[in-house]
């Protein structure tokens, strides 16, 4: 039963609602917290340098306090915040899919444990979207060029 449950889409939806509700409550009450997340699903903008990326574990703990807490917000299906990494405090915006949050923790006590293993299709990254727009613009430009009879002289026969 548990194997089926953790992969169930409806169960994942319930877990996501619980995550959103708890995070919203903490934001409203200015309660600092930590999250334990799956690193594979997290996006960093700008990307972390390789040496910093290698220091992170597959399950990574982020402490949302101070400036990091002040920048944190939920947007669509993501928890987004700014954080500094390493001795040089390399700044990056962190995008965490809500269902990749495995635990929400206060004072070393788990407040929520997400058992869902259901994988949602993650939204396209900003870079992928920009590349799609460039490709579409190039195709539209080429189509306009080909549709103009005056440009026929430029085509190889």
Write the layout of secondary structure elements.
Layout: H1 2-6, H2 9-28, E1 33-38, E2 43-45, H3 50-53, E3 59-64, H4 66-71, E4 73-75, E5 78-85, E6 90-97, E7 101-106, E8 109-113, H5 126-147
Your description of this structure?
36% of the residues lie in helices and 29% in strands. It has two domains: 119 residues, SspB-like (SH3 type barrels); 34 residues. By secondary structure, it is of the alpha+beta class. The chain is built from five helices and eight strands, in the order H-H-E-E-H-E-H-E-E-E-E-E-H. The longest helix has 22 residues.
Whole-number tally of structural domains: 2
Q: Approximately how much beta-strand content do the residues carry?
A: 25-35%
- What is the correct CATH architecture of the largest domain? Roll
Terminal CA distance: 66 Å
* Number of distinct beta strands: 8
**Count of helical segments?**
5
The CATH superfamily name of the largest domain is: SspB-like
Highest-level CATH class of the largest domain: Mainly Beta
Which strands sit side by side, in order, in the main sheet? 3-1-7-8
Net shape: globular
Quick description:
The chain has 157 residues and is α+β, with helices and mostly antiparallel strands. 36% of the residues lie in helices and 29% in strands.
